[in-house]
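Dock adenosine monophosphate; give full complex structure.
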Amino acid sequence: MVKYTHILVASDFTDNSGMVIKKAEELAKQMGSHLSLLHVVEPLPGYGYAFVGSAEIELQLVEEAKRQLAKLGKQLNVKDNDQYVEVGPTKIEITRVAEEIGADLIIVGSHGRHGLSNLLGSTANAVIHNADCDVLTVRLKDKI
Ligand code: AMP
C-alpha cells in the first residue's frame, strides 16, 4: 500500500472546512502519517503602502488564526509546532510550507467551479500546479 508519511492540511476555517479536516484526519490515521495544519492570513490590500492600523489588524488576524488552529490541533492531537499560521498569498504559502516541512501530501478543499471562476483560478488549482508533492483535493459541497 502507498503511504504518505507527512500530510499538510490547509484550512480556511470556513463552514465546510470540516470536510477537508475529517478526510485528512482519517487518512493520517489509516496510514500512520504525521499531520501538520496550516492557515494563511492574506496580507491586507495596501495599494503599495500600509494604511494606518493595518499592521495592528494583521497581528490580530494572526492571533485569532493561531487560536483557531490551536483548537483544531487539540481536537486532532496535532502538536503546537506542527501548526502553522503564515502571512502571504495563500496559493504560494501552502506550497512553500509543504516544501519547508517536507510534506509528501497536501490536502485542500475544492469547490469544483467551472467557467469564469475556474479561469480566474482557485486555490486548489494553483496548489496542484505549483506543488512538488502529491495533492488531494476534497470536493466541497457548496450550500447555494
Ligand atoms: P478556495 O479556492 O478559496 O475555495 O479554497 C479552497 C481550499 O484552499 C480550502 O478548502 C482550503 O483547503 C484552502 N485554503 C483557502 N484559503 C485558505 C487559507 N487562508 N488558509 C489555508 N488554506 C486555505
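Observed: Helices lie at 17-31, 54-76, 90-101, 115-120, 123-130.
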